[in-house]
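Much of our argument rests on the idea that a fold can be written as discrete symbols. In the encoding step, the backbone of a single protein was reduced to a row of integers, each denoting a local shape. We regard such an encoding as a compact summary of how the chain folds. The record that follows shows the chain in one-letter code together with its fold in token form:
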Amino acid sequence: MARRTEVTARQARLGTELRKLREGAGLMGREAAALLGTDAGRLSQIESGVAGVSESRVRDMATHYSCTDVGLIDALVAMATDRTRGWWEEFRGLLPPSFLDLAELEHHAMYRLDVEFLNIPGLLQTEDYARGLFSYRVPELPWPEVELRVKHRMRRKALIEGPGAVPYKAVIHEAALRIRVGDRTGARIQLLRILELSEADHITVRVIPFDVDGFGGAWATMMYTGGTVPKLDTVVRDVTANGTAFVDSEAQLEAFRTLFRKVEAASLEPERSRDFIHRLANEL
């Protein structure tokens, strides 16, 4: 397979997981390459995502690396053979690559967990709310790019609103609900939109009020995306105005799972959360 000039986060993740399997087997790159009938340079390209890999090669790797996790192997094969060109491709060259990587990650997600303290989670935002956030960037974005980002964010909502919607949980702090990104009318529309979405059986929204006791997790913003198998879960965190960081080490994933459980435990039950949001909307 030809070398790639641009590696997506999904392609890089496949290579990372194959490297983890090799290292777990205690094999150096040259040793593994000899077993697979290739050279160390080619194996390095596969593990970095620069070169693609076939189904047979993935299964050979699993055999030589003594991996018996059938679910993981099948999931890696699916990643290696996937040729999906989704809706996000229309934004290639127009938005930073991380925007496309996030959309592709969500396309393959099995479920999603969001925690937000200052902003409404992106999947729950109205167009006006998203526009208000993007137009506040410094340095300011050209208006056409603001509109592109808003359009991209609205398309991402297919994850929880489309025919293939997945289970979704969001924990939102009262601060995010009260901050008016737009005007009073827009803020009320945003809260009512959250209430409308939370009526769906697969969507759960919970609120952490200001007056909750003993809460020290206000730094714990996250977008936790469930993979086909737990080892392929991913945590996405905003790190710059133009990009995101994809977290995938097993230790970090387990830490974020624990953190989500703690944050969720500090929040109001779903029905009480709905009442809380409804009361805030009525105040506007």
Summary: The chain has a mean pLDDT of 95. Residues 88 and 172 are 27 Å apart (CA to CA).
